[in-house]
Specification:
Length: 468
């Protein structure tokens, strides 16, 4: 029986209080002469004494209920409810228990929401920092910890992110001068990275301790590089077109003017003009195929292509270029090679660009070796498409001057040439390898380049084989 303890004085006081109507009645009867004083007093003492155990029991139950409610407020158990003899007490206890259950449910929901908020904040890909009124980092998510190399929680923002623009924007929001601010900053170390920063004042109840502002960072490095590349591309393309165009208009003027009647000069100039217009049309054709391949790059081709047949016909087509220089095209095609999943025209262009380069940049009298086989191992960087099944390996090897290692990472950029004058002299557009790279990407394959200065270069293309 869970009953509270009640002091005797309180019990007596309550009993006296409850017996007061009887006392008044006895006083009235005694005053009217209907009852003697002593019997009246005796009656009152008897009534009060009879009330004493009743009062003690009820007060004990009430005190037990109060203790239980107090224990609930400090996390006590509903099951330990005191014995409820009276109907009213039972009702009060049931209502308190229901209230407590509701409150528990609500606080569980709040805890769940807080956990969910924290996990959302933690897993967002952009770095986020919650700041208090003193510019201190209250909390930082995983991306922010990764960016700064440590968890910045507890530090002054200015010590974590030393950029006057960001500090000023944060200060403006914290002081209430602005509700939000945007700015951009560049981190120079360890590599140059550009970020867009946004500071927002948090309205309403702070979700995390004393946080009153949110600083979000979004990396712009790739977008900026892309913008620079696009601008460079337009500048390069116009430059490449302007040179032959200037040559053409110059010769047209000469032929219309001073060399009008000079038969010999006319023949010579027309030859150069034909060469320049050929260069322009090659450039336009390459630009068009590059943009077409780029446009389709997101969707992998689904046809099956016999690469061996394409290699043989590409080699045939190159003979007129190779033979006069004493060069030989040596093909080594593995028997029973599976077909590859691809787009025939694009793969034909890839072969032509690689084999044409090998002949162009190979030394006179050497051979160009083209190997086609099933890959036994995969190079690092092979994607999921290559790792999920058999792979066909195409290698085009030349014995030319080779390429110095510092040029290798940039070789597949548009218009990147190791020796611009030499490339132009040989009719190159500077777009061949960029086209190869995009075709390989679209085919979910891989391109690797190995070169030794003075010995030659090997371009290897890894393509997913078509499943029978
Ligand atoms: P280009 O039209 O100038 O040949 P590419 O995009 O095909 O343009 O090649 C880019 C540059 O890469 C070339 O200018 C050349 O400097 C270099 N290169 C390409 N293939 C070879 C090779 N087989 N040997 C040496 N250098 C090469």
């Amino acid at each position: 029986m869970n009953r509270g303890t009640v002091t005797g004085g309180r019990v007596l006081l309550f009993a006296l209080f409850l017996s007061s109507p009887t006392a008044i009645m006895l006083v009235v009867l005694a005053g009217a002469g209907r009852l003697d004083v002593w019997p009246a007093l005796g009656t009152w003492v008897v009534v009060t004494s009879l009330l004493l155990p009743l009062v003690r029991s009820h007060l004990g139950e009430l005190s037990g209920l109060a203790n239980w409610v107090r224990s609930l407020a400090h996390g006590g158990d509903i099951a330990s409810a005191p014995a409820k003899d009276g109907v009213a007490l039972a009702e009060i206890a049931a209502s308190v228990a229901a209230l407590r259950r509701l409150w528990q449910q609500r606080s569980n929901e709040l805890a769940e929401t807080a956990r969910w908020n924290a996990s959302l904040l933690e897993n967002l890909p952009d770095p986020l920092l919650l700041l208090d009124s003193a510019r201190r980092v209250v909390r930082a998510n995983r991306a922010a910890t990764r960016l700064f190399g440590r968890d910045p929680a507890g530090a002054d923002l200015a010590a974590v992110l030393r950029d006057p623009g960001v500090t000023e924007a944060v200060q403006a929001v914290l002081s209430g001068a602005a509700a939000s601010r945007d700015c951009e900053f560049t981190q120079a170390i360890p590599v140059e990275r550009t970020f867009a920063a946004r500071v927002d004042r948090l309205d309403g109840q702070p979700a995390f301790e004393a946080a009153i502002a949110l600083l979000t960072l979004h990396e712009l490095t790739a977008i900026r590089a892309m913008e620079r590349m696009r601008a460079d591309f337009v500048a390069n393309a116009s430059h490449e077109l302007r040179t032959p165009l200037a040559a053409l208009s110059g010769f047209i003027e000469t032929l219309q003017g001073p060399a009008r009647d000079d038969e010999e000069a006319r023949e010579k100039f027309l030859g150069i003009m034909a060469e320049q217009s050929g260069r322009m049309s090659r450039l336009v054709a390459d630009l068009l195929s590059l943009s077409r391949i780029e446009l389709n790059e997101h969707s992998a081709p689904s046809e099956t292509v016999d690469l061996a047949r394409l290699v043989t016909s590409a080699a045939e087509a190159l003979k007129p270029l190779a033979n006069p220089r004493g060069m030989e095209l040596a093909l080594d095609i593995a028997p029973d090679l599976p077909q590859v999943t691809g787009q025939p025209d694009e793969l034909a262009q890839l072969l032509q660009n690689l084999m044409d380069n090998a002949v162009k940049y190979g030394n006179d009298g050497t051979s160009v070796e083209v190997t086609l086989a099933l890959a036994e191992t995969l190079p690092p960087g092979a994607g999921a498409a290559l790792r999920s099944g058999p792979v066909v390996r195409l290698a085009v090897r030349d014995h030319g001057e080779g390429i110095a290692p510092e040029h290798l990472p940039r070789l597949t950029e548009r218009f990147y040439r190791v020796d611009t004058a030499r490339s132009r002299k040989m009719g190159g557009t500077g777009l061949g390898l960029a086209i190869v790279k995009h075709i390989v990407n679209r085919h979910r394959g891989l391109l690797t380049i190995d070169s030794r200065v003075g010995e030659g270069t090997t371009f290897t293309v890894w393509l997913p084989a078509a499943l029978p």
